[in-house]
User: What shape does this take?
Amino acid sequence: MITTTVNLTSEFQSIFNTSQTPRTFFAPGRINLIGEHTDYNGGHVFPASISFGTYALSIKRNDQKLRFYSMNFPETGIIESDLSELAYDEKDNWANYPKGMLLYLKEAGHEINQGADILYYGNIPNGAGLSSSASIELATGVLLDGLFNLNIERLAMIQLGKKVENQYIGVNSGIMDQFAIGMGKRDHAILLDCETLNYQYAPIVLNGHAIIIINTNKQRTLAGSKYNERRAQCEQALSELQQELSINSLGDLSPEEFETNKHLIRDETNRKRAKHAVYENARTLLALEKLQQGDLNAFGQLMNESHKSLRDDYEVTGLELNTIAETAWEQEGVLGARMTGAGFGGCAIAVVEKNKIDDFKKNVNSIYREKVGYEATFYIATIGDGAKELTEEC
Ligand code: GLA
Assistant: This one.
């Protein structure tokens, strides 16, 4: 992972050939502690924004031009567009994310009449399932809000980010990532009810433990299509349950109600998918309770159960994530470990006693290397604030 010691302001000035000082905005990435694949099923999630994220620096222009540059993709050079050309264009590559935000903000009635030069720099590993795409969406959102004094309501910005993902990019994801990134709070996770959008912050107090992010370094190549397939399977299961039950989402069912009615779901695979969504939702609510009671062991156990359900019933883990989680469970000082995010590669998280972290990394990495053939990467997660303008130059 690249660190942020680079002087982004001078990088901006040199790329865009200007002596003016740009404004700097930041949107984090996120981890999800528990509550996976529950957001689009009307259940609860429990994510937190992390200190890794996307920096966006910008100056308004006097014409209608847009110029985007990412220090993470220098090979694409400066990508040029125009306020009148905001339709999705494959050749614009990663710049479609900011273009999508611009388009939907304008469509929502926000007045953006001048172009801008924007430089992005992200230190979230790309494709690792830590929401680099929602991070770039929200970084663009706060940037445009600040630059053009738009006064965008935060929830509206979050929903526009989701719309970019769903309609502009074409991944049928839920609201968790944009919400976690838009509403994040230092040292807190957010318990979000994805049906009502009611939420509460929960302080993360881990008594001598840290959250370790473990990147499998397996790119999530087929993630989009498999993700959409899981979602469709849950929708099918829901519609069969609705033949007899008056429910809006799988999140409306308790595990007991699910067991009594699961015969309504005809296909066995769809039944397993729905089972995960229902039980995971219940686990998430219980996890908050355990955390609030300071019962970290029980919290960790729920993380482990979450992983098993994602492995056996939702089937979104695979060799890499299973090797990490299952090896982590065997290590001393580990309270719990599970995949985080969509799955199909990407990252896992583990809650590890601070003085056991070195052994943890060494042991997990050596077994991972032996089974998978390449190394995992380990980061300590710090829970930081949500998307905002940075006032000091970085
Ligand atoms: C991705 C999606 C989220 C959520 C998770 C799985 O991160 O963007 O909306 O569905 O997968 O929990």
Summary: Residues 268-292 form the longest helix (25 residues). The pocket of alpha-D-galactopyranose is lined by residues 32, 36-37, 39-40, 173-174, 176-177, 341-342 (CB under 6 Å). Residues 35 and 45 are 4 Å apart (CA to CA).
